[in-house]
């Protein structure tokens, strides 16, 4: 029986294989780098939203105080606060009485019976303003009373 010797690779073939391995490794590294960057962006976004939700509670309190103080100058501060939020992509949900109730945008905190025979529930009163991030991610639904 003849002993088979392993096939010798030519230097050109070996160079091609190494080149292909290197290109695959570089592509894998690039994909990993992009995935890590995206994860970091998502973590930053989540952390920002948590902070913003806390700040919105403070804004709500300031607005409530403004209702009880005449000529306090708080309106200017509230306006500036809202400008900063909007510059960061945080926008209020524009909800008003008479709008259709949408459970993806609104959180019903009360129901008022109505004589109207409209099929869809309508918003009777806005109790607390809702907010969205980048226009599509609801970070706090509007708290509303619904007319049924």
Oligomer: single chain
Q: Which blocks of ≥5 consecutive residues have pLDDT under 50?
A: none
**Tertiary shape:** elongated
Order the strands across the largest sheet as they lie in space: 1-4-5
- Radius of gyration (CA) equals 29 Å
Helix coverage percent of residues? 40-55%
Q: What's the helix-strand series? A: HHEEEEEE
* Beta-strand share of residues: 15-25%
Number of strands: 6
Number of alpha- plus pi-helical segments: 2
Judged by helices, strands and strand pairing, the structural class is: alpha+beta
Distance between the termini: 93 Å
Number of domains: 2
- Give the rounded overall mean pLDDT: 88
Major β-sheet, in short?
3 strands, antiparallel
Key traits:
alpha+beta; 49% helix; 20% strand; 148 residues; three-stranded mixed beta sheet
What does this entry look like structurally?
By secondary structure, the chain is an alpha+beta fold. The protein has 2 domains: 10-88; 92-148, Head domain of nucleotide exchange factor GrpE (Nucleotide Exchange Factor Grpe, Chain A, domain 2). The protein contains 2 helices and 6 strands, in the order ααββββββ. The strands form 2 sheets. Strands 1-4-5 form a 3-stranded antiparallel β-sheet. The chain has a 3-stranded mixed β-sheet with strand order 2-6-3, with no helix packed on it. Helix 1 (11-68) packs antiparallel against helix 2 (74-87). The protein is elongated and about 95 Å long. The termini are far apart. The relative contact order is 0.12. The model has no long low-confidence stretch (mean pLDDT 88).
């Amino acid at each position: 029986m003849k002993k088979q010797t392993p096939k010798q690779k030519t230097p050109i073939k070996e160079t091609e294989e190494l080149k292909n391995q290197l290109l695959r490794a570089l592509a894998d590294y690039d994909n990993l780098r992009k995935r890590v960057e995206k994860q970091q962006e998502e973590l930053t976004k989540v952390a920002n939203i948590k902070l913003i939700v806390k700040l919105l509670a403070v804004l709500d309190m300031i607005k409530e105080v403004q209702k009880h103080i005449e000529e306090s100058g708080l309106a200017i501060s509230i306006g500036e606060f809202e400008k900063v939020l909007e510059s960061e992509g945080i926008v209020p949900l524009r909800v008003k009485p008479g709008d259709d109730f949408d459970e993806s945008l609104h959180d019903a905190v009360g129901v008022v019976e109505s004589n109207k025979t409209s099929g869809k529930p309508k918003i009777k009163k806005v109790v607390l303003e809702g907010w969205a991030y980048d226009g599509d991610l609801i970070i706090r639904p509007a708290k509303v009373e619904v007319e049924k």
